[in-house]
Each structure stands twice: as C-alpha cells, then as structure tokens.
Amino acid sequence: GRLSRDEKKTFVLSFDLVGRVYAGDDGAGEIASSKRPAIYITTGAVVPDGYDAVVPIEETEAKDSSTVQIVSSHVESVLDTKPMTWVRPIGCDIAAGSVVLARGEIVQPVHVALAAQVGLRLADIKVRRLPRIGVLSTGNELTPAFGQPTKIGQGKIPDVNRPMLLTQLAAYGNCIPVDLGIVSDEDSSSISKLLDDALWSESCTENVDVLVTTGGISMGEKDVMAKVFVEGMNGKLHFGRMNMKPGKPTTFITIDRKSDQGAMRRKLIFALPGNPVSASVCTELLVRPCLDLIHDSVASDEDEESFVNHGADHARVHEEVMAELASDIKLDQGRPEYRRVALRRVASADGPS
Predict the structure, then answer these.
(1) Is 351 helix (H, G, I), strand (E, B) or coil?
(2) Would you call 19 exposed, middle or buried from its count of C-beta atoms within 10 A (0-12, 13-18, 19+)?
(3) Contact at 8 Å (CB) between 208 and 132?
(4) Residue 269 pLDDT > 90, yes or no?
(5) At what angle do helices 288-295 and 304-313 cross, to 10 degrees?
(6) Are 73 and 64 in contact (CB under 8 A)?
(7) 32 burial class (0-12, 13-18, 19+ CB within 10 angstroms)?
(8) CB 54 within 8 A of CB 86
C-alpha cells in the first residue's frame, strides 16, 4: 500500500551498489547480488539484463562506496516506478521504415547526423549539385554598384538588381548564384554571344542551368531581350506577360540544345522587369519555386500531367499572416497586386496580438 505521511519520514529505501555500467559498455549479462541490488549507469549506456527502470541520480545519495539510498522526499515515487521509466527502447528514436532523407531534399547538418545514425555510408547517399543560376543586368543606364565613390554621370543609375538578386538567391540555399555582370542593350548580337558562352560553352566550368535577366523586356525599341533569346538563341517563348503587379512584363523562355555527347539539355530563362521591386517579387514567386523543383529531381521523362501534379504537390506555400492595414491603399483594379509591408505586433484589448 501507499506510505502514510509519518512513514515517509522514517522509511529508508536503500540498495546495494553492485556494479557500474558506462556508455560504450555492452551491458550484456545479468548482475546477481543480494536483495535489492542496484547498478550505477550513465546516460547512453546499455541497461543490463534483469533491470527495467532507472532512477535519476538526483533522487539518490551515496551512503558509502557500496550502498545507495533514495532521498526521503522521493521514496514514494521511486516505489511507484513503472517498468521502462527513463529507459529508451532500442529503435525508439527512428521507427523501422521511416524516411530519413527524402528524394530532392537539401542536405542539412541534421540530415548528416541522421544518415550516420542509421548506419549509411557516404557512398550510399546519391547527391546532385545545386543548379547554377546566372544573374545578368541589362541597360545602357546602369553603372556597377559598390564601385569607386565617384559621381554618377547624368542619366546613369547604379545597378541595384544584380547584387540584390545574387544575395536573395544565395539566401534560398537551393542554388549557386553566378554573377554575369552588366550588358548594354545596344547590340543584341553581343548579348547573344555572352549568354551563349554562359549557358553552353564546353570550356566554361560555371555553365548556368537557369538564367535571370533584369530589364529590356518591355515594349520600347531598346527592350531587346525577348528577341535575343527567341531569334538569336532559338529559344521557345512560353509567356511574355503576367496578370500581376508588379511583374507584368515577366517573360519565360526555354532553350534546348544537344551536348557534344548527344544528350538534350534544357536551359531556363526568366527575363524579369528592371524595376527592383518587380525583380525581387518575381524572383520569390517564380524563380524560387522553379529552383526547388529542379533540386527536387523532377524526372525529365515524366508526362505533362505527372509533371504538373508533382509541381503542385511540392509547391512552396508561403505562410499566411492575418493583419490589419494601418491606412487605406488603392489597388490596381485589373491585376492581382503584391504590396510591400512592414509587420508590427500591437497590443489589443484581449492582450498581445
């Protein structure tokens, strides 16, 4: 039965300390001794045969080198100890049949630990390199950002898109950004040559798989990028306008070409608006999910329906946050609009919100 309050004060629960087991010992064999034998065991050690529970050392006190006594305030709880208390069964952390690393997952430090824990060899883990994505700015008006502190000439502006997108893409962790610099929009043939080298040159060790350009895709006579890709590089135009704001002129093109070994290779082109807000928003909404799909090892031989279903199942879903506008805004009546905001938590009558 349970101990009375007076019995708790006087009852002595002690054990003969008959052995010690440390992490790394095999813990095999049953330890035989006199009545109520106990062993000292460290965290991570194998529980020997004949034992099925552990009492934390904080609930005990050593009377001498061979006897351990339960602290009086813990006597009743120790007497009520159930089997497997403070004992982890073998395999309890990762159940049999669990997926430790899914196909297409970006390997994080914890995945390395899990792979080692389940006994995989490095040779058992097949990885693919991250897709390389080139970032190119176009426009006669651009000058390199972060250069010498000289005065910018009349009609010139610093190229903010390229450093912004290189930094944004690097933060995603699903690609290797490659800086392709700035090109003038005067000579479409020169642009074609530069991009052809970046995409296909066999001598280039940093050929890009995806290309992001900013500027040169609107309706003006200097907006030549779509012409460069379609006419100059035999690309296929999939769309050249989007029903969204910002980002309406966004253009998506693919270019297919056989390698020297005869394999068909496809490069993806995102021609984004030159406005920095448009470029950043479109990179987040379009380029980032595309990079995720590439890294997720979408099979190139999948039929169109399977490809679309795979993309839908693995699409990035942005977190939704309920918020209240601090002031009225006027939205575009013809297009869905994405606005930049600064979120701030404020106290309400019901407490913090």
Answers:
(1) strand
(2) middle
(3) yes
(4) yes
(5) 110
(6) no
(7) exposed
(8) yes
Q: What distance in Å separates the CA atoms of residue 279 and residue 135, rounded to the nearest whole number?
A: 11
Query: What pLDDT does residue 206 have?
Result: 72
What's the half-sphere exposure (Cβ side, CA atoms, 13 Å) at 143? 13
pLDDT digits (tens, 9 = 90+) for 293-309: 887 665 555 566 776 67
Q: How far apart are CA 217 and CA 92, in angstroms?
A: 57
Q: How many residues does the chain have?
A: 353
Answer whether 36's CB lies under 8 Å from 16's CB. Answer: yes
Q: Which two tokens stand for residue 236?
A: 């296929």
3-state secondary structure of 252: strand
Long-range CB contacts (< 8 A, 24+ apart) of 196-205? Answer: 196/233, 198/134, 198/136, 199/134, 199/255, 199/267, 200/257, 200/265, 200/267, 202/260
Alpha-carbon gap, residue 73 to 59, rounded angstroms: 8
Half-sphere exposure of 11 (CA within 13 A, CB side): 17
- The first and second tokens of residue 55, run together, are 């009492």
